[in-house]
Amino acid sequence: MERSLNLARNILVETLEHMDQTIKISAKRREAYVVEQNRQTKELLLPLGSIRFNRTCYTSKRTGKSVYLLDEVIGLEGHQRMTIGAAAAILEETIESSYRKGGEHASLMDQVSKQTVKNLVHETVIEMPIREREEKKKIRHLHIEADEDHVAAQFYERKGDLTRDERGRKSNTLMPKIICVYEDIEEESGGSSKSKRYRLTGKHYFCGLYPGKENEKLWEEVREYIAATYDYEYLEKIYIAGDGAAWIKAGCEVLEKADFVLDKFHMGKYIQKSVVHLLDSAEEVKSEIYEAIHQKERGRIKQIYAKILSVTEKESKSQEVEESLKYLMNNWKGITIYAEDGGAVWGCHAEGQVSHVLSSRMSSRPMGWSRTGADQMSKLRAYRMNGGKVIELLKYQEEKQKREKRVEKKEELVKELRRAQAGRRHAERLQGTVPGLEAHSMKWMRELLSYPGAM
Predict the structure, then answer these.
(1) DSSP-derived pairing of the beta strands 33-46 and 170-171
(2) In principle, which of 103, 129, 261, 343 could form an S-S bond with 112, CB 3.0–4.6 Å?
């Protein structure tokens, strides 16, 4: 295996250096570029291992700028040290495990440092256009569950910048958000199973820190996805379930036809906290509370809590009961929707989604994150959970950058031509090409350098 890989790399280096010589002796090259430096070394990490080859640096007669024409032919950026195939292999592994293991999976022959992996995670642009369905789904009721994970911060932007509270304890918690859009809940365990298992259908995740005003951007991304996927006119209602946090309720302001629903987990947690000290009477009082909720009797809830407070002796427990009552009252509209709206499929899966998508990688093991690292990793996790392929993400970003650079170069050229006003001959000279730069002529080489499947 190792001998075969070494042979493949040696052949690739020979081919690249031969291409460099072909460019160097080209007559068209001499018209537009002069040699600046010979035998400049380039190191590049590929899926099959690292290679080192020599190429020539030129100076453009028109602009005076230095350029490596071989790099342009094979589609490499000047600062690029690894192909997107190697970068994809690193990211695929580190999304699932760790920076260390990601570095070990850089290629078949070599590995990179944890710092290199960290830099790659931080610098990857996690944006893909949402594809609009030709025939949009007709769903009457759409569900959203929103929650957040609690991730330990090693630092925010740089080491040593964590703040401390009044007791001297570090404020070191980052809270990446997770939104799960789904269509329905169906049983997947089968009728013969004693323990029923359910799954959410039509799931799509959105994750990231989105602090402060950026929260609106998060919900706009959700709105864009829903508009591209579902027939909005056919859609009757969107239910947003969560713990009542302001950032979750803000979704109702961005999404049309949306109502907030207090999820059962958090409602049950506060109710349980209210009655746990009542011992033998706890279950009876809890049943009364749920009955009042079902009947939408807000006044009765207050009466029940008044009785609980009358028999609560400890001041600390009284404060807990009062906080629970306040929580229920502040989220009353989100509670009563259970009783008054029959179009929803009620359940509580937010905690499970947090664990599956975020916690299993980011908070279940002792590790620390920076703001950028936590934000990027949570977005990468969501992208993978949605069925996205990292190689496709990197290819899209590469093509996007190339398009932007082509537009920029075209604009610069137009400005220069207008300034020069030297007529058509000058324009024709500027448009002369170096052999090999045509879009399709070196496709095989780009594929071999960049993509794992080309090996």
Answers:
(1) unpaired
(2) 103
**11 token code pair:** 């052949």
CA distance 54 to 38: 8
Return d(Cα 410, Cα 322) in angstroms, integer. 67
Q: Token pair for residue 163? A: 């703040």
Angle at which helices 315-330 and 264-275 cross, to 10°: 150
Whether residue 160 is predicted with pLDDT greater than 90 in this model: the reply is no
**Residue 436 pLDDT class (50, 70, 90 cuts):** very low
pLDDT (tens digit per residue) in 192-213 = 556 667 788 999 999 999 999 9
Radius of gyration from C-alpha coordinates of the chain: 30
Question: What residue type is assigned to position 186 of the chain?
Answer: E
- Give the number of other Cβ atoms within 10 Å of residue 441's Cβ: 11
Asked if 74 and 442 touch (Cβ cutoff 8 Å), the reply is yes
Rounded CA-CA distance 51/296 in Å is 71
| pLDDT on residue 250 | 97
pTM for this one?
0.82
Name the one residue in this structure whose structure tokens are 């990197």: 394
